[in-house]
Design a protein that fits this description.
about 425 residues, about 30% helix, 14 helices, binds uridine-diphosphate-N-acetylglucosamine
Amino acid sequence: MSQLTIRGGSCLGGETEIQGAKNSVLPILAATLLTAGQVELRGCPRLRDVDASIHILRDLGCTARWEGENVLLVDTRNLNGCAVSERLMREMRSSAIFLGAILARCGQAELSYPGGCELGPRPIDLHLSGLRDLGAEIDDAGGVLHCKAPCLQGREIVLSLPSVGATENLMLAACGADGVTTISNAAREPEIVDLQQFLTACGAKVSGAGTSTVSVEGGKPLHGCTYTVMPDRIVTATYLCAAASAGGEIFLQGAREAHLSTVTAVLREAGCSIRSEERGMACVCRDRLTAVRPVRTAPYPGFPTDAQAILMAALLRSRGATVFEENLFASRYRHVDELARMGADIRVSGRVAVVTGIKTLHGAPVRCTDLRGGAALCVAALAAEGETSVREIGHIDRGYEDIAGDLRRLGAEIVRTGD
Ligand code: UD1
């Protein structure tokens, strides 16, 4: 069994490069199906979820091969299927994103229901009702989604909440629909802007990403392109929190502050000094952090739910108490019991968690409960006296290309064993 062993208690110092964004590359890989051509994706992170997407693409008759460290060549010209097996759907939580793209390209799709995940129920009702609005017939009996849409028709879709996945799925389906689709109350995440830029590079007519209204003029034939995936803002937040937790001075090449200003605002309030340069971001933390005003997760541009656990880990040794309110997912405090093994003082009541800073954390054997919760354990371990072993790191591999290598380059004592 693979595990990370971290010896904490000393300051960080060093530089590393930020990987491409997981949440960008997954919808972009689904979007390659809309092109009948070859796509060269640069800055493509090597992640378990990317491998799962590659398996789905290959199963559908496409080719995908790595050329160099982070360049993925995808060729979707020979697509010959429209069904994704349950086994492949289960490999990745966000596989529902393939629905819109397959439907747009083939006029039909068959996928098993993605079901719940470690963060609680993961409904896709908004994806399905939006696709029905575009004219798809969807039968979801028996855990399998049978979708038919010989001719998708563009129209206005109003999302009842700004779901990232639903916005992306509908953008992809709308590329294959006749006429104009407008998605109102769309999610505004930077990854949606990245998807729009990719689609535009392929010849699609998409506008408005980053605002609450996204428009797609469908029916244009799309071609292949060469595209570079944006840097991962949650990985950036993780390493900023690592420096905040352990102290020290780090530089993150390629990091962009514009994508995570709510996180940097909180870290500055806690006492970190963060500077943005053209080449990336620098972070210096010299003193014990102070507690901050309540942190409430919200859709972008609010505080990201994906950064909640890692910020919590950074504040475990702060002066004072910080209140967290998790507003997106039902089960997003599962890391708390693991952090408690290291001595953390956290009280959870429903969607609220109160972190009271303590002077010393101690190393302990802990296990990952989910992707960002796992990263949070690493952030806490860097500040803990002694050794922490982090098990069940397969969760971390879903979203971090090489967390051990990155943290080592940033000056941490961390080794990965058991692969
Ligand atoms: C994406 C991100 C994930 C992040 C989340 C919120 C990817 C691959 N994943 O997930 O890392 O934590 O955004 O920023 O990009 N909902 C419904 N019905 C739906 C869809 C969603 O009720 O049909 C609810 C969800 O239960 C959740 C909220 O909407 O409470 C937000 O979910 P959504 O924005 O869809 O998240 P994902 O796209 O799944």
